[in-house]
Write a structure and sequence with these properties.
It is a single chain. This protein is an alpha+beta fold and 129 residues long. The protein has two domains: 69 residues, 2,3-Dihydroxybiphenyl 1,2-Dioxygenase, domain 1; 60 residues, Roll (2,3-Dihydroxybiphenyl 1,2-Dioxygenase, domain 1). Helices cover 21% and strands 39% of the residues. The chain contains three helices and nine strands, in the order E-H-E-E-E-H-E-H-E-E-E-E. A hairpin with a 2-residue loop joins strand 7 and strand 8. The chain is globular and about 50 Å long. The mean pLDDT is 96.
Amino acid sequence: MKQHIAQIALVVYDYDEAIKYYIEKLGFHLVEDTVLSDTKRWVVVAPKGADGCKLLLAKAVNGKQKSRIGNQTGGRVFLFLHTDDFWRDYKQMQANGIEFLREPVEESWGIATVFQDLYGNTWDLVQPK
């Protein structure tokens, strides 16, 4: 049997606000934006050059879903963005106004730092060795 995780749903307040952030601030590309109804869209973004897991931007529709925005994992790092050039991406993200929570650290396994997205979800930016 062969399986893989194709997408992870990320609960957001607004489709267009989230698309703009992921495209302009993180340099992702828009994979799909399909209108499903007057209130629902199928919006998928991914890092440029990625051929694996993508993010499905899912607009919160009720109070319970809205309460999870920015804290889908109880405060732990939620997503891990791997790169082939840490310092290039780190500097670009800084220039784009990304909020970093920690200084970069070099470990035996690679270089990493933690940042927050527009809703407060925590991410690791990692260049593995």
